[in-house]
Amino acid sequence: MWFFSRDPVRDFPYELSPELPEGGPPGPWSLHRGRKKATGSPVSIFVYDVKPGAEEQTQVAKAAFKRLKTLRHPNILAYIDGLETEKCFHVVTEAVTPLGMYLKSRVEAGGLKELEISWGLHQIVKALSFLVNDCSLIHNNVCMAAVFVDRAGEWKLGGLDYMYSSQGNGGGPPHKGVPELEQYDPPELADGSSRVVKEKWSADMWRLGCLIWEVFNGPLPRAAALRNPGKIPKSLVPHYCELVGANPRVRPNPAHFLQNCRAPGGFMNNRFVETNLFLEEIQIKEPAEKQKFFQELSKSLDSFPEDFCRHKVLPQLLTAFEFGNAGATVLTPLFKVGKFLSAEEYQQKIIPVVVKMFSSTDRAMRIRLLQQMEQFIQYLDEPTVNSQIFPHVVHGFLDTNPAIREQTVKSMLLLAPKLNEANLNVELMKHFARLQAKDEQGPIRCNTTVCLGKIGSYLSASTRHRVLTSAFSRATKDPFAPSRVAGVLGFAATHNLYSMNDCAHKILPVLCGLTVDPEKSVRDQAFKAIRSFLSKLESVSEDPTQLEEVEKDVHAASSPGVGGTAASWAGWAVTGVSSLTSKLIRAHPTAAPAETHIPQRPTPEGLPAPAPTPVPATPMTSSHYETQEDKDTAEDSSAADKWDDEDWGSLEQEAESVLAQQDDWIAGGQASRAGQVSNPDHKSPESDWSSWEAEGSWEQGWQEPSPPEPPPEGVRLASEYNWGGLEPSDKGDPFAALSARPSTQLRQDSWSEDNWEGLETESRQALTRKKREERRREMEAKRAEKKAAKGPMKLGARKLD
């Protein structure tokens, strides 16, 4: 009945695009763009409409339908689905473009490279070799209209309408009846003589010569034009002449033609063809061969076509990582190919693989991911970073390999803007505190300081107040000179995050101690920082109304804008220290720079701690860094304990009040300044650091203050202010609140009595020194007991601990 009838074209799972048909091959078929209804994936659809009185053409179309459905080869147009009715034939293939249209589009974009043409012709000749030698079939229609190009730039052989068997089964070649196709027939067919001795591949190889001529010179006007090679490359001309020779017996077999072109110096002997051939057989290659291939691949990707990299190289790289255990070698080419992808494609194809790579225990994989994080960090969202990436990255802080620790520190510059409150202000700060105090590599301690200065603007206000001042103060006491420079620049880079009280009471005393540092680079940066902080204090002193504006960022939330300024400030430190770290690790993989003790003078009871006084120091050469690295580990532990006394790293004590923390900072800072004198064993910087002053110039991010303009009438200069007298002033003292100290009130003549620090501070200093001495004695006793318990080892005994 009529209501049970169904339209097969309407139920077909593919639909044609409403756009006009593309320029398909001459003949009965028309080429349309289409898509699969279920997924929307693009396809190409060849359509033949059955016409009355065209039975011969209909039989040709049916034969082409059957041939395309049964022939499967990587270089022959891939059949996907088909529909055959009384009114039409639909053949669905992979999405392709006719070669003629593809060449025109590439000419507008700058033309097709010889590398692409060499691989395209290689594919067509390989398809002909398969048909002639393996299937005993004659294509009989090789021309520009029978070649198609997929989205990866691969050339596919189609146009199977007039194919016939070379063994005589099913009769001779079918009649074409299309003048555009008959012009490619060889001259022996035009003569009509059956006595001409020829090979079964002779006609197809002649047509291949016509195709080569058209690819380089455009449409073929007449057969006589084949005598002039035109723009055909010189390396291909000898082989081309064999194809279009008048004697059909001289024309080579397709397989021999490939061998000749692949010979040294041949047209198809290049890196692009070799890469494609390897990718086609990658599943049967040995692991060592795959490793070598991927290592060399990244060097060649720049010269390869973009479509080829996106649609052929990328899937192979993803497959090699997923199933082939290729490891870290796929990372470099993978990220190179990723540059050609859109943001959406990157999220779908690259990011899932990257997230999985971070959970790998392979050190080579981890360090390459950290080194190349800049290429994919922009595509990672915050939930992914905090839940799937950061928990794996932090293991690098505890790695025994210094290179991984250093790269992990550097990666925090990129991850910090995407970290949540807990990971950034608690977890990361704990690791930074341990690295800066206890890491044996001086450059890594220096990089930790630099990184902290760059990400300081992303920290919360309470964390900044608790961490920054103490961290940079610790860096200024580091025996590694570049670390001290980094500490000074860290103060300068985050100058807007400190209150005037902190600048006067905590930062300037530390910087003043560096003005007698044995290294000139440290002294120079310290003087610049002191001048800048003093100018800031003086400007507020002259105009107290500026106080609110100057301290607007102190209690503000995290501000990414400040991080950009810090990045320009200390950009030199990471690259410079990275090269030095590599040198130290290569020269002494297990060596560690010694944490030198800073001798302390005994302080008479009742007197304040004396100011640091310079001691004559003999600069040490860079070789002395290596000779000092075998000292006892007790010195490292003792030096690390000093930071614990200052409560820098006790981030677990979140419930402590800000006032109590300020008292601890004052006591710890004064105790460290009281006992510090210039260390004669300070090391002189290596030659790598000779250009630090020029690279880390303050003029890059913080200009020297210009001379102040004359103040308005009635305003007193800071030099005219009576700082110590009891003379009454007309206006309130803007520093009255800032200069309040936690100790007892000072009398007018307190400085002359040498009682500036106060008795409470002195008692804290004595208690701190006593605890430190007890701790040192306990460690020495435990170490002695452990050595005594071991005793001499017997020959062949295994050391269990």
From TrEMBL:
Residues 14-314 form the Protein kinase domain. InterPro entries: ARM-like, ARM-type_fold, CIK-Related_Protein, Kinase-like_dom_sf, Prot_kinase_dom. CDD domains: PK_SCY1_like (cd14011). Pfam families: Pkinase. Residues 775-788 have a biased composition (Basic and acidic residues). Residues 643-655, 751-760 have a biased composition (Acidic residues). Residues 601-617 have a biased composition (Pro residues). Residues 16-36, 541-562, 588-801 are annotated as: Disordered. PANTHER family: N-TERMINAL KINASE-LIKE PROTEIN, SCY1-RELATED S/T PROTEIN KINASE-LIKE. Belongs to the protein kinase superfamily. Regulates COPI-mediated retrograde protein traffic at the interface between the Golgi apparatus and the endoplasmic reticulum. Involved in the maintenance of the Golgi apparatus morphology. This is N-terminal kinase-like protein. The lineage of its organism: Eukaryota, Metazoa, Chordata, Craniata, Vertebrata. The gene is SCYL1.
